[in-house]
Amino acid sequence: MKPRSFVKRRHFQSGELALQITSMADIFTILLIFLLKGYATDAATVQPTGGLRLPAAAQSAPIREALKIEVTPAGVLLEGIPLIEAKDFGNPSHASWQTFDGSLAAAKKKQELIAASNSDVALQGRFTLIADQQAPWPLLREVLKRAAANGFMEPQLAVVKKGD
Has residue 130 been placed in a domain? Predict the structure, then answer.
């Protein structure tokens, strides 16, 4: 066996410098994850239907993502789907109110299934009430009562901040 030589061998490189993009790719990946995570935790956006005027408030907390119930002059919508027409507002025993109850129960069941299959998701009874500022109180009370009866106990009211 020949003894190993500890002489350093010189490697000559050409005049070109090779760009090392591995560390740059790592930096961009971390930056992308940071930006996406920050975007995902922002408050939810609320897009009221046309002609809906939200009530004004001096202070408003950011609205978090939740089930959306809209009360407009034309009717009541659940996640953008019209369920109750304006002519049925005064008749809580009308079939459309039972459809509303069934849709709320289905939304709650869906949330329960998601929470059961994913331990990172907490079951919440939160919903966002997007109501016109001229909506009558008896109608709002009926919507809140039915939401609570179906397990949605944490209402968030969508408002416009005064001065905006």
Answer: yes
**Residue 151 in tokens:** 């397990």
**Cα–Cα distance for residue pair 142/139, rounded to 1 Å:** 5
Is position 134 within any domain?
Answer: yes
Statement: residue 162 has pLDDT above 60: yes
148, containing H or E segment: helix 137-149
Copy the structure tokens of residue 100: 């509303």
Q: Structure pTM?
A: 0.67
Q: How many domains does the chain have?
A: 1
**Greatest pairwise CA separation for the chain in angstroms:** 101
CB 143 within 8 A of CB 76: yes
Query: Domain range spanning residue 93?
Result: 56-161
* Distance between CA atoms of residues 87 and 29, nearest Å: 55
Task: Report if residue 60 sits inside a domain.
Answer: yes
